[in-house]
Amino acid sequence: MTDVVVVESPAKAKTINKYLGRDFRVLASFGHVRDLPPKDGSVRPEEDFAMDWEADERGERQVREIAQALKGARRLFLATDPDREGEAISWHVKDMLARRGALKGVEVNRITFNEITKRAIQTALAAPRDLDTPLIEAYLARRALDYLVGFNLSPVLWRKLPGSKSAGRVQSVALRLICEREAEIEAFRAREYWTVEARFATPTGAHFTARLTHHEGRKLEQFDLPDEASAMRAKAAVESGSFGVVSVEKKRTRRNPPPPFTTSTLQMEASRKLGMGAQQTMRTAQQLYEGVEIGGETVGLITYMRTDGVQMAREAVFAIRDHVKSAFGADYVPGAPREYSSKAKNAQEAHEAIRPTDVSRTPEQVARFLDERQRRLYELIWKRAVASQMQSAELDQTTVEIADASGRTRLRATGSVIAFDGFLRLYREDEDDRAADARAGLATSAVEEEDERTLPPMRERDALKTQGVQANQHFTQPPPRYSEASLVKKLEELGIGRPSTYASILQVLQDREYVRLDKRRFIPEDRGRLVTAFLVAFFERYVDTGFTAGLEERLDDISGGRADWRAVMRDFWRDFSKALEGTSELRISDVIDALDAELGPHFFPQREGAGDPRACPSCSGGRLGLRLGRTGAFIGCSNYPECRYTRPLAVPGADGDKAAGGFDGQRSLGADPATGQDVTLRRGPYGVYVQLGEGGTDAKGKPTKPRRASLTRDMNPETLDLEAALALLSLPRPIGRDPETGEEITAGIGRFGPYVRLGNVYQSLEPGDDVLTLGMNRAMDLLAKARAKVRLLGQHPKDGAPVEIRKGRFGPYAMHGKTVANLPRGVEMEAMTLDEAVALLAEKGKEMAPRGKAGAKGARGKKAAPRRAAGNGAAAEAPAAKKAAPVRKAAAKKPAAKKAPAKAPGAKAAAKKPGA
């Protein structure tokens, strides 16, 4: 009699199955198994927030498999992730199993573990618990909030602001932060100021630089030298003076190590130091958490990566201290273990910080088992965790005051010397890190840079020789645009959202084309600015950072058992529904006036020497303003319809394509080392692509096309280099072999974008996946989703070719070679047998249309297979996310298999749903 364990992912199931052996069967839920149907009425405030849940085909199939495995089982262990979402998934699985009657006589336990190691899993099995009801209720409240905001606010946007997309509860606040920062930059006016620096020589001949701090007996503030004339007078005073050392002050300071990573600090540092986006960071961390193959065994390398706690398990702390002592010496181990607490607003600290599961697995030891991205991220996590338990660094800081004989002209030099490196020996903020800070919008100040300079030995009353004086012009700089790192930091400081949601928040903003990333900085699109202006004008409270942070605190109270979730929902809905009612009589003209007043300075900037920016260039007396049409906003003339001047919604003189990282024309990237042919970047009618050479002729004199490869959506043509271009041209690339069939798994780019392929099974890559670096674990996860759409019944009795049941756009169908037949209405994929499929194909089978004929149709309107992708050398049959959408819509129209009131959290909302 075996026990059943349910986890979230197949990769995790495979690892845990090896640890537990024959007495257990480990199955994956593939994430959430149910969700709120994307239609009105799924959350009903009038029924005290009753909620309907609906399982998709995959969820039903997984629960059916779990129910089958429970026959004869004694215990069910729900072992999904140790957070709110994991608790909700466990609850959904339990509820669906109970409705099937699959839990009779089965003991149900909830277990959690912070790392996927044999010891951690055995410890969890020995200490099971019940489901955490407050945590589930917090999930219910959060899911209901997101649904009600999305499904009630989005239609208002669609009606009153044509061309806009959906609005989300937290994403709208993040978008407001980005838009407000852009408005600050546009309103910024640079201010000039000057500084004076002198280079001195000590009596021993050593040189150093000091900055002027007092002029004519008065201390200088930033703008006290506002122009060149005043700067030159100050410079002359320094040049004419005779200077000596007035005082030398030395003090020893300690610099403590930073705490180990939380989700948000990991995303910030990975962006700052490794150039990895939030989605990419979390996906790579997930791979390290679920385990990689090391010496024939799958090993989880880090603890759970969705956490806002900074503490570590005691045994981990002592293991790190032992490692530090053996690797660096006893001087690098502090007298007592370091303890940390989070300073982030609303931090729950429910889990450990992110750390290596075994500190003895150094980055050097495991590097050969990891791909480049995994290796770099593991090294970052390992070093940060180890450094957090090392001795503080000690620095000798020196401040030298310098003055002339009168004391009315004074300068200051500062510097520091590392007396004991401590944790800096392992985890150092060096020059490279400051450059990374600048790229991420977290640049260090000039004062900090001065403090890190070293000074030569000096004593009081030492006479100094002036070697040269320089006056430097400066201008104040506008606040930097948000990078992923700085925006995550800001959201965390404000207490908006949870660390585990930041990656999806940033991705949704880009997917909805509200913002774009340019040189790793967020720039709001005009569409995003319009949405923000509308929400601020008519729903200001619900995009207010204070209100959103306060709501997060109430959600945390629910998860802590300190508040009733329905009471929180009633308070929210009472005010939100009134705000919605207030827009029922809102006229389009009111919207235009509000948006025009808010965004006028952006769309009609006043330029020096230019005339009225709102004057119509096509007629006399006409004034340009914001207009709304069926397809969205545009700029139009007030004299319409007499004057029909219009222009797209863009700032005059701004090059939208260039700003967006666009590319126009042709650029050489270098020569291919293998062939010597030139690799070029080009723009064609279907987008930007790379090309090898110029083609030629074959043996028969017929022209041949050059090899080409399209860029993926997340590639920036402006920064693409030769190495990346050659990698694209080499696609499809092998990833590995399927452990079951031995068939090769490849990744490539097809007509509908990047995909992974096993035999005739294709699956589109998801946001955050990189076709050039996709690893085996992630490929298997993606292929598992594709395989869920195909069921092999067996071989056809006539020719031995496979007979399959496939999930199509219009429902499941049987397939044998090129012959297809739709399954009868109401017949599920799993219910079909080989004999029934053979009979169905013989009776109703139709041949699919030939490949390559775009207009040809197969059975029941199925389109012909996509044509071969240019330059890839492989058929691009991978279905895109867009092609999958009709399947989801079809599924949503079916009546829910089972509906329940609000007692079951479900799948995370897809990005395209209004509430996402």
Q: What can you see in these coordinates?
A:
By secondary structure, this protein is of the alpha+beta class. Among the domains are: 3-138, 3-Layer(aba) Sandwich (Rossmann fold), CATH 3.40.50.140; 192-256 and 394-475, Topoisomerase I, domain 3; 263-304 and 322-391, Topoisomerase I, domain 4; 666-715, no CATH class; 789-868, no CATH class. The chain has 25 helices and 35 strands. The strands form ten sheets. It has a six-stranded antiparallel β-barrel. Strands 31-32-33-34-35 form a five-stranded antiparallel β-sheet. Strands 2-1-5-6 form a four-stranded parallel β-sheet, with helices on both faces. A hairpin with a 2-residue loop joins strand 11 (292-294) and strand 12. Helix 3 packs across helix 5 and helix 6 (171-187) crosses helix 17. The longest helix is centred in the N-terminal third of the chain and has 28 residues, at 133-160. It starts with a strand and ends in a 23-residue tail after the last helix.
Quick tags:
six-stranded antiparallel barrel; alpha+beta; Rossmann fold; 35 strands; Topoisomerase I, domain 4; Topoisomerase I, domain 3; single chain; globular
Short structural summary:
This protein has 916 residues and is α+β, with helices and mostly antiparallel strands. It is 34% helix and 21% strand. The radius of gyration is 32 Å and the shape is globular.
